Protein: tRNA(Ile)-lysidine synthase
Organism: Brachybacterium hainanense
Amino acid sequence: MAGPPRVVARARSAVRAHLAARLELLADDTGAGHLAPRVLVGVSGGADSLALLATTAWVAHRMGLETEALIIDHALQEDSAAVAGRAAETCRRLGAQAAEIRRVQVRTDGPGGIENAARAARQQVFAQRLEETGALALLLGHTLDDQAEQVLMGLARGGGPRALAGIPPVRGPVLRPFLGAARDETTALRRADTEEICRLHDADWWEDPMNADPALLRSRVRGTVLPLLREQLGEQIDENLARAAALIGPDVEHLDAEARDQLEALRRDGGELREERDLLLLDVHALAAAPGVLRTRILRDASRLAEAAAGTPSDKSLLRRQVLAADALVVSWHGQAGVPLPGRIEVARRDGLLVWRRADP
Ligand SMILES: Nc1ncnc2c1ncn2[C@@H]1O[C@H](COP(=O)(O)OP(=O)(O)OP(=O)(O)O)[C@@H](O)[C@H]1O
């Protein structure tokens, strides 16, 4: 008997590998027993997420798991409720035991644009639904094409290693099986593969009109820049960009984890807060002993902690010049005034300590 088409088999194997790894991890942590035998799939109605839903429903069923489609209606077009309703119907036909539609309000005039506001709203619902259902995992349909676009946009914006590491295939309970198993981009699926899977399932998908909006960087990268790069640099450019992310990803994750551990240790030895404005103190000599790649990460993480401690969290990350100025306080400079940071705080040097404190009013 002939097996499933090759593309379907590849998709199933990617989803199976991700779910099996998640179950194994939870079994080690003895956390699996507390979780419902359910997986969530974020479905936009696009080809990538419908293909993922169909694949997951098939695989999960055979692993004794239920599949719930989670559809977020951003209410950004007039027909958005109808699009969400049709997607839910398709998901049930493709084997989902449940299909949840959540309507969210998205600010259209926010600082990061509609795209970022929609993403933030989506992530909030994802986290909430994971909590409500106690599901094992939430699966998202990002493909190798999304990864290539992400890396290119990161480079274009002058991003560092984190930007070049692209979209993580696994982050806690959030899994992106179509990015490939264990950072192996050769097992990733292309957007065209997901369209083929949808056609094989006779499932109509929705094309997001925002994808064609030239005002958005992502649309220009997808519609103009990558086609040109394929023509000029070769058809393998998407795979090569995704490979760069796969190669750098583990290095970045390792350094980030190391920096978190070192910050924890430095905080333990950091002494008591002395002034009312103080938020966080670190021993400057201990910090100076860390290599530069860790120091800059520790400074970023510490600044985020201090911002949270101040109760004035901003959605801005540290600028490169702020990191360099803070690092200069550590390695070379003693009497300099505080370096202003996001969230109305600053970092300064005082008595052998690096001090994060509320900024002078
Ligand atoms: N409205 C939605 N409802 C539920 N899931 C969604 C929705 N939009 C996107 N997703 C999920 O996110 C995946 C990626 O979608 P898309 O590429 O449009 O988002 P993105 O903005 O690039 O991603 P991210 O959310 O990571 O920034 C989809 O395959 C789907 O799993």
About this structure: The two ends are 75 Å apart (CA to CA).
